[in-house]
Specification:
Elements (H helix, E strand, L loop, with lengths): L1 H9 L15 H22 L4 E4 L5 H6 L3 E3 L1 H10 L3 H10 L8 H10 L16 E5 L5 H13 L3 E4 L11 H22 L5 H23 L11 H12 L4 H20 L10 E6 L7 H10 L2 E5 L12 H8 L9 H14 L4 E7 L3 H4 L2 H12 L3 E6 L9 H25 L1
Parallel strand pairs: 1-2, 1-3, 3-4, 5-6, 5-7, 7-8
C-alpha cells in the first residue's frame, strides 16, 4: 500500500489540456495574411535598400501605393503591441524618456519604439523609418508625435493639415487647401521614391481603395440583421486591413470574401457569434486592446452583442479623383462638428437596431472622448435607449478598471431589460 502511494506520488502530473484553436474562415484568414504581408514588405524593402515609411492611418495611402513605397502604420503596431500585453512596458519606457503619461498610449508606444525600445510582440516589429507621413484629421496629437519621430531619426516629414470643420458640409476652399497639400506631398514623395508619379498606378490604387471601402462597409452593414451574423467585436480585428492596406487589390478581395461569408450566414439565419444574441448595443470609441477578453466577458455572459460602431466604418470612404479624395479625407470622426458626429452615430444605432449604448471614455484619445458626455446625453434623449460609460484606454492597461467596467455593463443590461419589459407591456 505504502509502495503504491509512493508510486502515485512520484507520478508526473498530467499536462494541461490545450484548447483547440478557434476555426478561422477563409475570409478572416485572407485578411490576416494581408496584414502580415504589409509588415513583411517593409522588411523586404529595408533589406533591399529601399526607403520605408511610417504613416498615420488617414494619410492618403494611395499616393505611397502609386509610388511603390513600403509603408507601415504605428497606430496598428501600437494596437497590436497593446493587445499582446506589452503596451504598459512600452508606455513606461516612453515616460522615462520624458514623454508625458497623459498623451496618447499609441503615441507613447510608437515613440518608445522609434527611440530603440524593442517590443516582445515579434509580429509587430517594423524597420526604422526613412520618412514619415502624417495627416492630422485623426487627432491633434498626431502632429507632435510624428515631428518627434522625424527629429529622432533626422528624416523627412510629409504633413497634410486638415482643418477642423465646424460645418456639416466640407467647403470648396477647404478642398482646395488640402488638394494643394496633396500635390506638394506627391512632389516630396517622388524624391524619396526616386521615381515619377504614375497617374495610371495612382488610379489603380484609388480603384482598389474604393473597392476595399465598399466591401468593408458592406461587412459593417451586415450587423443590421437579427441575429447579427458576427460579433461586432470582430470588426475591430479586421480594421487593420482597411487602415494599412486599403489601396491593395488583395485587401478588396479579402473583404469581398468575408462579405460573401456573412451573406451566407444571413441567408441561413446563422452567426459566428459564440453566444445567443439577447441585446444589441453600440460600442462607442476605440476598444481597450490590452483588455479585449475582459471587455468581451460580461457582454457574452449577458447575451450582449455589439452591432454598431462608428470607429470601424469611419475608414470606409469612396471618392473619384484627387478633389473628391481631399473631401473624403475631411470626414474623420475627430475632424467633424458634433452635429455631424451625432448624426452618424444615431443613424448607425437606428439602422443596426440597438437596445443601448456603451461609451468608452478613452484616456488616450481626448479629442474623441472630450465631447462624449454630450453625445451620451443626446443618445439617451434622441434614441430613447439607455447609455452607460466606463473609463479605459486604447493601449495603456493602467487606465482600465475591470470592476468599474463590469458594474457599468451590468447596469446597462438591467436598464435594457427594463426597457424591454415596458415595450412588451405596451404591445
Amino acid at each position: 500500500m505504502a509502495e503504491n502511494e509512493k508510486a502515485t506520488a512520484a507520478a508526473p502530473e498530467a499536462a494541461p489540456v490545450k484548447k483547440a484553436p478557434k476555426p478561422v474562415s477563409p475570409g478572416t484568414q485572407a485578411l490576416r495574411d494581408v496584414v502580415s504581408k504589409v509588415y513583411a514588405a517593409a522588411w523586404d524593402a529595408k533589406k533591399a535598400g529601399r526607403p520605408v515609411g511610417w504613416s498615420s492611418s488617414k494619410f492618403p495611402c494611395e499616393i505611397a501605393e502609386a509610388l511603390g513605397l513600403a509603408v507601415v502604420y504605428p497606430e496598428n503596431q501600437a494596437a497590436g503591441i497593446g493587445a499582446q500585453h506589452d503596451g504598459q512596458r512600452m508606455c513606461e519606457a516612453a515616460e522615462s524618456l520624458g514623454f508625458d503619461p497623459d498623451i496618447c498610449g499609441y503615441a507613447r508606444i510608437s515613440l518608445a519604439y522609434a527611440a530603440g525600445v524593442e517590443t516582445t510582440n515579434e509580429s509587430r516589429r517594423v524597420p526604422a523609418p526613412d520618412f514619415v507621413l502624417c495627416c492630422n484629421n485623426i487627432c491633434n496629437c498626431m502632429t507632435k508625435w510624428y515631428e518627434n519621430i522625424a527629429r529622432m531619426h533626422n528624416i523627412p516629414l510629409i504633413m497634410i493639415d486638415v482643418p477642423y470643420n465646424n460645418e456639416v458640409t466640407v467647403s470648396d476652399s477647404q478642398v482646395a487647401y488640402i488638394r494643394g497639400q496633396f500635390d506638394e506631398a506627391i512632389k516630396q514623395m517622388e524624391k524619396i521614391a526616386g521615381v515619377k508619379f504614375d497617374e495610371k498606378k495612382f488610379e489603380q490604387a484609388c480603384a482598389n481603395a474604393n473597392r476595399t471601402a465598399k466591401a468593408w462597409l458592406k461587412v459593417c452593414d451586415y450587423l443590421q440583421y437579427k441575429p447579427a451574423p458576427m460579433s461586432g467585436f470582430d470588426l475591430f480585428n479586421h480594421m487593420a486591413d482597411v487602415v494599412t492596406a486599403r489601396g491593395k487589390v488583395e485587401t478588396a478581395e479579402a473583404f469581398e470574401l468575408l462579405a460573401s461569408e456573412l451573406e451566407e450566414h444571413v441567408k441561413n439565419g446563422t452567426t459566428t457569434s459564440p453566444f445567443p444574441e439577447q441585446y444589441r448595443i453600440m460600442f462607442e470609441g476605440i476598444p481597450c486592446w490590452p483588455n479585449l477578453k475582459t471587455l468581451f466577458k460580461p457582454l457574452k455572459a449577458n447575451g450582449v452583442n455589439v452591432t454598431a460602431v462608428v470607429y470601424a466604418p469611419a475608414f470606409g470612404f469612396v471618392y473619384n479623383g484627387l478633389d473628391e479624395m481631399a473631401r473624403a479625407y475631411c470626414k474623420a470622426p475627430n475632424s467633424v462638428c458634433i452635429e455631424q458626429g451625432v448624426d452618424w452615430r444615431e443613424g448607425i444605432c437606428r439602422d443596426n437596431k440597438v437596445d443601448g449604448v456603451l461609451v468608452h471614455y478613452n484616456r488616450s484619445c481626448k479629442p474623441w472622448s472630450g465631447y462624449m458626455a454630450e453625445m451620451q446625453r443626446r443618445f439617451t434623449k434622441d434614441l430613447g435607449v439607455p447609455c452607460a460609460g466606463f473609463d479605459g484606454d486604447q493601449a495603456d492597461p493602467r487606465n482600465f478598471n475591470e470592476a468599474q467596467y463590469e458594474t457599468r455593463v451590468q447596469g446597462l443590461v438591467e436598464a435594457m431589460e427594463e426597457n424591454k419589459k415596458l415595450k412588451e407591456a405596451r404591445a
